[in-house]
Amino acid sequence: MSLYQIKEIANESVPNPPAGLFTLFLDTDGAWKKKDYSGIVSAVTSGFYTENGTLSGDRIINIGEFSITFSSNEPGLFFIDGGTNRIGIGTDNPQDKLHIQGSSSISSPNAAEGVSLDDITSGGTFTGVITINYLIKIDTLGTPDTFRWSIDDGSTWEATAVGITGSAQTLSEGVTITFTNTIGHTLNDSWAVLATANNPLRATNTVGTDILAVTNGGKVGINTITPVTTLHIQDDISIYPSIAPIVQMYNKESAAASQSILAYSLDDDAEEEEVYACTSGEISDPTAGSVVGDFKIKVAQLGTITEIVTVHGDDGRVSMDNALVVGGGNIDASAQLEVQSGGAPFKGFLPPKVTTANKGLIAAPADGLVVFDTDLQKLCVYCSTGPSWETITSV
Question: Would you call 69 helix, strand, or coil by DSSP?
Answer without folding.
Answer: strand
